[in-house]
Amino acid sequence: MAAPGLATGGGNWFSALALGVTLFKCLLIPTYHSTDFEVHRNWLAITHSLPVSQWYYEATSEWTLDYPPFFAWFEYALSHIAKYFDQEMLNVHNLNYSSTRTLLFQRFSVIFTDVLFVYAVHECCKCIDGKKAGKELTEKPKFILSVLLLWNFGLLIVDHIHFQYNGFLFGLMLLSIARLFQKRYMEGAFLFAVLLHFKHIYLYVAPAYGIYLLRSYCFTANKPDGSIRWNSFSFVRLISLGLIVFLVSALSLGPFLALNQLPQVLSRLFPFKRGLCHAYWAPNFWALYNALDKVLSVIGLELKLLDPNKIPKASMTSGLVQQFQHTVLPSVTPMATLICTLMAILPSVFCLWFKPQGPRGFLRCLILCALSSFLFGWHVHEKAILLAVLPMSLLSVGKAGDASIFLILTTTGHYSLFPLLFTAPELPIKILLMLLFTVYSISSLKTLFRKEKPLFNWMETFYLLGLGPLEVFCEFVFPFISWKLKYPFIPLLLTSVYCAVGITYAWFRLYVSVLTDPPIRKTKKQ
């Protein structure tokens, strides 16, 4: 990847990386795709065939439209290209329809929209401090960051095998982060507001944006000790930020407000009637909670302390969302998860306000908001870990401590995505891809910080190496033992719980770093 010609060609090496990953994505077109492929095909059909007034009511398919309006309009725009590939894919009643042309269209639509992600990565690289740059191209922080983002294992398998449109959405997020690093606050705020109306999961990180923009843009100066100069508050800037949010929201939700359908849209976006966890438990605090409940229920049955007829049945293997009722521990309500999430986020937001550390402080707060929401949120999907992994890539090339946290978070978070690809042909693909990405991440960051202490201690090394035996057991041992019939959920449970430990540990380490780092003590004027 580090050919001599690339080093002399300025941005040629970046173009080569982007072209290389694009060609690789094309190779993944024939691979397995999940039910999300049918979800998005159905959304193409809904937005193309029905009037706007029926988009959020249509329920012929179980995969109803449950993304914000901007994404619905995105599907609408795609549908007008799709009709030239295969008109049948746009029939609402053609449930589970698939054809070669439909496959090619949907796969290539994801690849094409990734152009925004590539541009965002390029902009983020401009924000990276190059002081640690080595003589070789492969040792430069910008090169390492480009590989970590463009070739991110999690994004590759989720978008280009499993099938989703996360690339351009993360492109919007990374571009908004880059604009804040460049002190182009209005652009950053606008991009994030647009992003929220494409996919509402980004509400996870909204507190970081709100506090940082208020602290760094609406207040125009700090005292020498880093605290706010309260008389520097700009009401005009606050109004301008509010106007951006209002206008973007009006453009998105206005048509449905006019149709008196806003409650229906919101009920689709926030389906609290779904269970605490997805069919496959995301590796978070509730996975540990559920596992403890499972263990206690098994012990209770063995000791005949529980009545088997009164234990609720729950499936962890289907793709459909199902309620999970706890047997021994108290059941968890949406309000309980909201309180836990807010309590987990508050310290990071407090530090962002009272211990300003510049754009890097904002980025750390953003990651902590994402991780806190992932760990304690209601009905979290395992794919949401990418919301923390991708921004953490920017921190990883700055400090050795952040690189260590990044490697633990990324390796664990990426492995937790393995159950998404459960078909045999994809087994060698996911193992090889993750090995290549993980080996590159560790070796490149070790080289970048070779003059500092080791990135892992013995305990962290032991934990990460434990992923190997776990994979061997889940894929090559468990299918051939008698437990498969009685306890089919064990591989998913072990994967979820083991990864939850690593992700929680990374969250804790990052929090310690944020709480103990001193604020930047210099006067700022903007």
Automatic annotation (TrEMBL):
It is a multi-pass membrane protein. GO terms for cellular component: endoplasmic reticulum membrane. This is Alpha-1,3-glucosyltransferase. It is an enzyme of class 2 (transferase). Belongs to the ALG6/ALG8 glucosyltransferase family. Its EC number is 2.4.1.-. It is found in: Endoplasmic reticulum membrane. The gene is ALG8. Residues 1-18 form the signal peptide. Keywords: Endoplasmic reticulum, Glycosyltransferase, Membrane, Signal, Transferase, Transmembrane, Transmembrane helix. Pfam families: Alg6_Alg8. Pathway: Protein modification; protein glycosylation. The chain crosses the membrane at residues 12-32, 141-158, 188-214, 234-259, 335-355, 361-378, 429-449, 461-483, 489-512. Its main location: endoplasmic reticulum. The keyword Nuclease does not apply. The keyword Transferase applies. GO terms for biological process: protein N-linked glycosylation. GO terms for molecular function: dolichyl pyrophosphate Glc1Man9GlcNAc2 alpha-1,3-glucosyltransferase activity.
